[in-house]
Design a protein that fits this description.
alpha/beta; 2 domains; metal-binding
Amino acid sequence: MASASRRMIERRRRRQLRRPRVFKDRSNPLEDLEEDEIFNRYRFRPQSIINLLSLLPNIARSTARNHPLPPLLQLLACLRFLATGAIHLLIGDALNISRSAAGYCIRDVAEKICQLRQQFIKFPTGQQVSDTKNSFFRVAGFPNVLGCVDGTHIPIMRPKENEVDFVNRKSFHSLNCQMCCDSNFKVTSCVATWPGSVHDSRIFRSSALCLQFENGDHDGFLLGDSGYCCRSFLLTPFLNAGSPAEQRYNDSLCRTRVIIEQTFGILNRRFQCLQKGMATDPKMASIYIVASVVLHNYGIERRDIIDIDRQQPAPQPSFQTPPNQQIANDGARMRKHIVDTFFSS
């Protein structure tokens, strides 16, 4: 009893003692590491990181502390998490900050990056439309294409609410994210809020991109796989090609549509948090996904993620919509018109 009493008194005494604050050495990784080492750890080169910091003017957090975290360190913590998917404790150890501080930085900076989505995730308009169509035509000779659309499953931890809705067809919890890309692997539309059990076609029908095409805001086609319903603006392959022309159509569509699969591969390799899964709730996971897509497009514009060959593509032949007005709502007729016009000979 006496020893137990002494231990209790000792614990109380320790709790009453004020622990001195320890200020860790917060050196600048951009100054201590080589350029290639910075790129391997943060997926961007130093100049791109500094430029990205200038796009986030409100990144500094108000605090009553005498030694607040500098904005650059906060940005690096977020980039390190998105690049590796590591737990917050490891991120904090790598930058000499606490686990809780790393968590705050990652969440706050990711939300700030998401606010740039209108600037970096944009569907082509104006002169970009003609350039996009010509670029896609150069890939496999498919005319009048504005983008390739598909869904990808991003693993997440088991949510506390509506857990069954997030179980996908492969029996793990995920968000089903719909993305559309151009021929340069740049994401032009991103929807990252649907549970994994929702089908790709339903996500597209409910998306703003589908509504824009239905309202006639875009003059061109999207290419999708057989999981989508064939529409006048969303072309899918023939399940059973009945003629050589239909087979050539399928081959051209598949060679063009593979760009969206390659885009998913680039995203998963560069931002491994998307591949390993995120131990957070679906709402926060959606923010991390959008932030990764924004950074992906930012890196392409800076030529800092993938070096795109920007040769001038050969102009594609002019596309004429058939005079039959009923074809506007008939995907099968539009698909047959494409086959007869461009793949019959």
